Automatic annotation (TrEMBL), chain B:
Xref: CDD domains: EFh
Domain EF-hand as annotated: residue spans: 95-130, 131-166, 179-214
One term under GO cellular component: voltage-gated potassium channel complex
UniProt-listed InterPro entries: EF-hand-dom_pair, EF_Hand_1_Ca_BS, EF_hand_dom, Recoverin
Protein name as it appears in the record: EF-hand domain-containing protein
Keywords, in A-Z order: Calcium, Cell membrane, Ion channel, Ion transport, Membrane, Metal-binding, Potassium, Potassium channel, Potassium transport, Repeat, Transport, Voltage-gated channel
GO terms, molecular function: calcium ion binding; potassium channel activity; potassium channel regulator activity
One Gene Ontology biological process: regulation of potassium ion transmembrane transport
Subcellular location: Cell membrane
């Protein structure tokens, strides 16, 4: 039942009075209304703008947010209203839907914003009224096309595990990905041009031999042209075979238009090779040479404009078909009329209706060669009508084709522009993101240094360090910290990470490493948590996964208070050597090693940390026993 | 012959006017008649107090009723088509247009082809707030299609058919062809006291008052609003 007419239900029930007297059996009891509550006004506060409506209005659509009990989640007890933190402008359309039963799409609204609002309020967009549905669908399609363009860009990103074949295919499809591909692209382009030019020049008459007329260049310098042709065909064949090899789906590749063009371009040559100078066949062979001109279509891989043109023609197929059909009809009509009009005149060129086709076509397209002209008056009149209608018939579908072409062309322009802008956009977004992750690392450092300062008891620095970070930030940092604890890894900076990799790789044996069996670190892309037993073994591979040296050097603050062995917990980024045999560093003013000094190029450390570097370098104790039981891996330090 | 010639002349003038308009480019002209249709008839009910006097509804009930009414019919009156459309939304399976037509006739007390809010509310008041006798009277009025004071078998048959039409095709047990007719027979057996083939108002009320089921079902309307 349409809930819009829910208000008329009492009337419908009252109308049942007509059935009562004629009924033979008793009626079922009516449902009791348990709570006979009056219809009340509901206040919906959407971002400060108050909307009011009857409760029954909202109850009309019980499978939406406002019509169901879901809105109770948004009820504000103090103000006795429902508060939604959404866009009030878009809410207007939503509420009007309840009131009138029709959902309208406002033109000024962004399509994805509108979709989000609808999704939030539980309304399916399909019920948009007919008046606005077309507009909605058009904008949605446009948006989807744009997003698809963006997504295709993401496909360019390098996938880590691509074998040779896939790399080759990617190189073929997107020449700008690697230099080799670009070279290949330009070489093939050059050879296509050369091939087309030789085909053209072959037929130019070049200098006459003394005996006869001008011979075309092709016949004069047969060998040269043959060599050029062979070279080009070699290149094209090699290219085609390489593409065939690299294609992910060979069958589909062979069916694609470009590959057919490739084949057609090189086939005449091979057929020519195979065929000998057989007299009858050579005529056909000459015809085959025409197909060499298809090589020019190979340019469509190189030129986007050609591709757009082809795509436009494909998408306007129906308009073109209509144009063709209407032209054919008009041609036949006018040819017949002209034929019969000119039948009477003597020496008329209009010998038959098909012969008049030529005249009609030439006239309708306003070419007017003048080889066939009507001579009778009737013929002239009909001829003029013919040319006028020709202009009309051709002019009608052409704007459609033109607008299609312009739309696709502009879309492509936009895609290119967006691609160029995207790099800048992504860089900016990356910087912003790094800012937030840096905030966490920064806060870690601050926290550590705070603890440090606590222990050293220097007051003023402590105050300096105690930057008040917002509650949200601190909660977020706490969350990241929990994650670190869970996975027994820590977040690091990009540069640190790379440095770890380098150091881990470069590290040569050091006695201190012998004891560090438990320490494994991971770096580079392969985040494997292998427990590499000894440094020696690990360092042999370039994908080394130990940073023992790095770990050691990047040791964080070894703060040990008293005899507590597990001081690794006190500092977040400590080198988790839980050995009690560790060098006892007293809590107060002793050797507090910060990682800062250990790194060769501590670029992103707060300068404060440097102030604490003690004189002596890192205690790289050979006595570090690997009594640590946990797998806590120190990837890097501050 | 002159008739023919007159018609010919008329056609010729039409064609000539057409060609004239074709040449001057005024072929598609907004005709003046269209403008008149745009001005819609708008009717406003008299006043809340007056309606309160005329009916037995409270103010709040009238407000609720009017809001629903105005939502569906912004112009203030319901014509028969709208009436049928609204009513058919409650009976999606069958064809309720005939019964709706009868209802419309019953509501449209001043027979002007449209039901205003007053008519609507007065009718509803009788059905929902009236005494049992009022309700029976109203039902009789509904059945009496030509308003002559008695229900004939044909009238009853029409009503019965319209009610059965609302059931639609998919019923259990399958709808027989003569089900309405049989039902009419039963009805007349019950109602027609003096067996004269028609049911008058007194017979109707008397027979209904004697029937337990009907009395009970009449009380269903107390709680509709």
């Amino acid at each position: 039942m349409a809930t819009g007419v829910a208000a008329w239900l009492p009337f419908a029930r009252a109308a049942a009075i007509g059935w009562m007297p004629v009924a033979n059996c008793p009626m079922p009891p009516a449902p009791r209304e348990h709570s006979k509550k009056q219809d009340e006004l509901i206040i919906l506060n959407v971002s400060g703008r108050r909307f009011q409506t009857w409760r029954t209005t909202l109850d009309r659509y019980p499978d939406t947010l406002l019509g169901s009990t879901e809105k109770e989640f948004f009820y504000n007890e103090e103000t006795k209203e429902y508060f939604f933190d959404r866009d009030p402008d878009a809410f207007r359309s939503v509420l009007n839907f309840y009131r009138t039963g029709k959902l309208h799409y406002p033109r000024y609204e962004c399509i994805s914003a509108f979709d989000e609002e609808l999704a939030f309020f539980g309304i399916i967009p399909e019920i948009i009224g007919d008046c606005c549905y077309e507009e909605y669908k058009d904008r949605k399609r446009e948006n989807a096309e744009r997003l698809m363009d963006d997504q295709e860009e993401n496909k360019d990103s390098k996938l880590p595990n691509m074998n040779f074949r896939e790399t080759m295919w990617r190189a073929f499809e997107n020449p700008h990905t690697s230099t080799m591909a670009l070279v290949f692209y330009y070489v093939t382009g050059f050879f296509i041009a050369v091939s087309v030019i030789t085909n053209v020049v072959e037929t130019v008459p070049c200098g006459s031999t003394p005996n006869q007329k001008d011979v075309p260049c092709g016949e004069r310098y047969t060998v040269a042209f043959f060599c050029m042709d062979t070279a080009c065909v070699m290149i094209f064949t090699v290219e085609y075979l390489l593409r065939l090899f690299a294609a992910p789906s060979r069958y589909r590749f062979m069916r694609s238009v470009m590959s057919i063009i490739d084949v057609v371009a090189i086939l005449p040559y091979y057929i020519g090779l195979v065929m000998t100078n057989n007299e009858d066949v050579s005529g056909a062979f000459v015809t085959l040479r025409v197909f060499r001109v298809f090589r020019i279509f190979k340019f469509s891989r190189h030129s986007q404009g050609l591709r757009i043109l082809g795509y436009t023609l494909k998408s306007c197929a129906s308009e073109l078909g209509f144009l063709l059909f209407s032209l054919t009809m008009a041609i036949i009509i006018f040819a017949t009329v002209m034929f019969y009009a000119e039948k009477g005149s003597s020496s008329s060129k209009f010998t038959s209706i098909p012969a008049s086709f030529w005249y009609t076509i030439v006239t309708m397209t306003t070419l007017g060669y003048g080889d066939m002209v009507p001579k009778t008056i009737a013929g002239k009149i009909f001829g003029s009508i013919c040319s006028l209608s020709g202009v009309l018939v051709i002019a009608l579908p052409v704007p459609v084709i033109v607008s299609n072409f312009s739309r696709i062309y502009h879309q492509n322009q936009r895609a290119d522009k967006r691609r160029a802008q995207k790099k800048a956009r992504l860089a900016r977004i990356r910087i912003a993101k790094k800012g937030s992750s840096n905030a966490y690392l920064q806060s870690k450092r601050n926290g550590l240094l705070n603890e440090l300062l606590d222990l050293t008891g220097s007051e003023e620095e402590e105050q300096h360090m105690n930057k008040t970070s917002s509650l949200l930030e601190s909660q977020h940092h706490h969350l990241l910290h929990c994650l670190e604890k869970t996975t027994a890894h820590e977040f690091v900076d990009e540069q640190l990470f790379e440095q770890n990799c380098i150091e881990g790789a470069q590290f040569s044996r050091s006695p201190s490493l012998s004891s560090q069996e438990g320490f494994t670190g991971t770096c580079c892309t392969h985040r494997s948590r292998k427990r590499i037993p000894l440094p020696n073994a690990s360092l042999s591979t370039t994908h080394t996964h130990t940073h023992t040296q790095g770990l050691q050097e990047l040791s964080a603050i070894h703060i040990q208070c008293g005899d507590q062995p597990s001081l690794s917990t006190s500092s977040r980024s400590s080198l988790n050597m839980k050995s009690s045999e560790r060098s006892r560093i007293n809590c107060r003013g002793q050797q507090i090693t910060t990682a800062v000094i250990s790194l060769p190029s501590p670029t992103n450390f707060p300068p404060d940390g440097d102030g604490h570097s003690p004189a002596n370098p890192i205690p790289a104790p050979p006595t570090i026993n690997t009594t640590t039981s946990s797998n806590i891996v120190k990837v890097s330090a501050l | 012959m002159s008739h023919c010639r007159k018609r010919c002349k008329r056609q010729l003038t039409k064609v000539a006017r057409y060609f004239y308009r074709f040449l001057t480019g005024t072929l598609t002209q907004d005709s003046i008649e269209d403008d008149f249709e745009l001005s819609t008839v708008c009717h406003r009910p008299e006043g809340l107090e007056k309606l309160q006097e005329q009916t037995k509804f409270t103010k709040k009930e009238l407000q609720v009723l009017y809001r629903g009414f105005k939502n569906e019919c912004p112009s203030g009156v319901v014509n028969e088509d709208t009436f049928k459309v609204i009513y058919s939304q409650f009976f999606p399976q069958g064809d309720s247009s005939t019964y709706a037509h009868f209802l419309f006739e019953a509501f449209d007390t001043n027979k002007n082809g449209s039901v205003s809010f007053e008519d609507f509310v007065i009718g509803l008041s009788i059905i929902l707030r009236g005494t049992i006798n009022d309700r029976l009277n109203w039902a009789f009025n509904l059945y009496d299609l030509n308003k002559d004071g008695c229900i004939t078998k044909e009238e009853m048959l029409d009503i019965m058919k319209s009610i059965y039409d609302m059931m639609g095709k998919y019923t259990y047990p399958c709808m027989q062809e003569d089900a309405p007719r049989e039902h009419v027979e039963t009805f007349f057996q019950k109602m027609d006291r003096n067996n004269d083939g028609v049911v008058t108002i007194d017979e109707f009320i008397e027979s209904c008052q004697k029937d337990e089921n009907i009395m009970q079902s009449m009380q269903l309307f107390d709680n509709v609003i």
